[in-house]
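TASK: fixed-backbone design
INPUT:
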């Protein structure tokens, strides 16, 4: 809960310093932490909190590997939000425009999800010109699409989009070539319309700071090992 007391001030607002310590060695730009509840903090909230200068504590109402995957997902990003890309396998077809949801494109991977190498991309605008929409996406996808590393900051990715005059760009993990996120020009305009961000919460490795809840039972030692490995 955050409570503000309105009052007259005799100093400029940009001189206000709300930096705080989460622990003895972890400093935050804003004194805000999101709760380790399964309805509150998973990867998306952890990313948003770290981008703003706070921190998210990911819940443990899940299996140890699932919690660790939330940690890895959040720490692999430097964009202040998580999108929800659409995936297909090469043999799939796209029968309706509804399959694009709100995305400008569909990504094609071996597995049909983010957990395998990106093979190609189908732009919504290209699909709309097709005469045979029952054909597998492998027949008409754009192979080897332009991408950027997932550790690009928002400004780096936005500058790349502008320089290449692209409508969207996939962000790819350098470790395993998996699709981490999708950034569009609409996202860039939306984010630049936000109030100015403070300093993000970053670790010594340059990645977002993310917290994780853990219990005190004997079996939680295994969970702890997975969390530490996840960063």
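OUTPUT:
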């Amino acid at each position: 809960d955050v409570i503000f007391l309105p009052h007259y001030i005799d100093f400029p607002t940009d001189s206000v310093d709300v930096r705080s310590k989460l622990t003895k060695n972890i400093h935050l730009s804003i004194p805000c932490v999101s709760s380790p509840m399964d309805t509150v903090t998973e990867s998306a909230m952890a990313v948003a909190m770290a981008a703003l200068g706070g921190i998210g504590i990911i819940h443990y109402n899940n299996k140890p590997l699932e919690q660790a995957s939330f940690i890895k997902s959040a720490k692999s990003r430097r964009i202040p939000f998580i999108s929800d890309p659409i995936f297909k396998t090469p043999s799939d077809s796209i029968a309706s425009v509804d399959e694009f949801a709100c995305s400008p494109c569909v990504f094609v991977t071996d597995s049909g999800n983010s957990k395998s190498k990106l093979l190609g991309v189908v732009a919504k605008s290209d699909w709309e010109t097709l005469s045979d929409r029952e054909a597998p996406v492998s027949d008409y996808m754009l192979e080897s699409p332009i991408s950027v590393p997932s550790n690009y900051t928002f400004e780096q990715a936005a500058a790349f989009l502008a320089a290449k005059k692209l409508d969207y760009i996939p962000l790819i993990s350098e470790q395993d070539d998996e699709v981490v996120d999708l950034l569009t020009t609409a996202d860039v305009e939306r984010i630049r319309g936000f109030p100015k961000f403070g300093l993000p919460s970053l670790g010594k490795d340059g990645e977002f700071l993310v917290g994780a809840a853990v219990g005190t039972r004997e079996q939680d030692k295994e969970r702890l090992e997975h969390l530490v490995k996840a960063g």
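COMMENT: DSSP finds six helices and twelve strands in the chain.
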